[in-house]
Sequence to fold (394 residues):
Amino acid sequence: MRDPMFTLTAGPTATWPRVQAAMSGPVVYDYDPVFLERFARTERKIAELYRTSGDVVLMQGEAVLGLEAAARALVRPGMTAINLVSGVYAKWFGIWLAEYGANLVEVEVPYDEHVDPALVRQALEDHPDAGLVAVVHSETPSGVLNPLKDIAAIVREHGALMVADVVSSLGGEDLDFDGWGLDLAVAGPQKCLAGPPGMSLCAVSDRAWEAIRGNPAAPRGSFLSLLDWKDRWIDGGRHAFPYTPSVVDVAGVEAACDVVLEMGVEASIAQHRLAARAVREGVVAMGLELWARNPAFATSCITAVRVPEGVDALGALAHIRERYGVMLSPGYGEIKEKLFRVGHQGPGAASLNPVVALAALGRGLADLGVAVRTGDGLEAALAVLSGAGTAVPA
Ligand SMILES: *Cc1c(COP(=O)(O)O)cnc(C)c1O
Fold:
C-alpha cells in the first residue's frame, strides 16, 4: 500500500516540512558542541512553550516514558495520591500510581465528560493527607479537555503536588506552567507540535524536585530517572547526558518548536481552536454526533465522533484510508470501536485540512450506506474557517 496523502490522526500526526528537513541533517556525536548547544536551546524553547522559568527535561522515549518516570519519581510508598480520571490515559496513570505503592484515590467521571473542579475540592477535603493530584489536561482518546487551570488552583491552595499529562495540549491549548502552579507536566512532540514521536518533554517545578530528592523510592541510575537528568545534565552544567539522546529526534523537536514559536504560541492555539470548531460544526451539520457531551470542554487537538449504530468503525476507517488515502483514527483502549477521531494538530489544523478530514469521513460513511449530509458538513466547516480570516500560517 502507498503512503497516505493525509495523516489527520490523533498522533503521531503529519509533521511540518521543516521538521522533516531538520531530521534529514547529519547524525552528529552527542558530545559535539553543535549538539550540546542544540539540546540546551531546545530545552529553552520547550520552556517557552510551557511558560516556565524552571527546568525542562527532555527524555529520550515517547511520552509514556515521561509519564511513567513522573509517577515513579513522585510516589512514596504509602502516600495518598488523587487521580482524576476522565479517560483512558488517566486510568493508566492510576495503575502506575498504585503499582508504585500509592494509596490511590480515584475520582472518575464518564469518558465523555470533564472533571468538575468541585469534585477535586471535595476529594481534597475527604483526603487531606493527599500528596499529589494527577490529571490529563487533554484526553486525546475521548476528545475531552479538563479545566486544568481551575483544578491546579484548588490543588495549590491545598499544598499537594499537581501532576498533569499535557501530551496533546502543549502548543494547542492554553497552558501556563508557572502561572497555574503546576509541578510536573509531560508533553509529547507528536501531537499539536507536529514533531517526531519519540521524546518526552517534561517540565518540573522546584517543589517537585524537592519532593523527588526526598523520595528514597525515586529511581536513580535508571532510564526512568528524572533525577539523573537533574544531577548529571542540568546541575552538572549541561556537559554530560545520563544516556545518549537521539540526535535526529532532537533536531526534529527543535524545528517543531520553531514553527510554533515563530507563528506565536497564541496564534498556534487559536489555529487549533478554529480547526476544532470547524470540525465540530461540520460533524454536527452532517448529522453525526460528537462524543464530548459539552462542546465547551472539547479539546482542540482532535474531535471524537460517535460511531453510528450498526457501523463497523475499523472497517469504515480502512475503507477511507484505501479509497481516499486519508488516515483518521479510531478510539483508543476500551472505547476503540465506539468512536472516530479526526485529528487537527499541527499542519492538520492549518489551511483546509479540517475540510479534507470531514470530506473523507462523510463521503466514506456514505459509501458504506450511512445517511450522512456530507455537503452540509463541509459548508458548515468552511463557514467557520472563512469567517476568521486566513487559516494558513505565515
Ligand atoms: C499520545 C498521548 C500519550 C502518549 O501515548 P502514546 O499512545 O504512546 O503516544 C499520553 N497521554 C495523552 C493524553 C496522549 O494524547
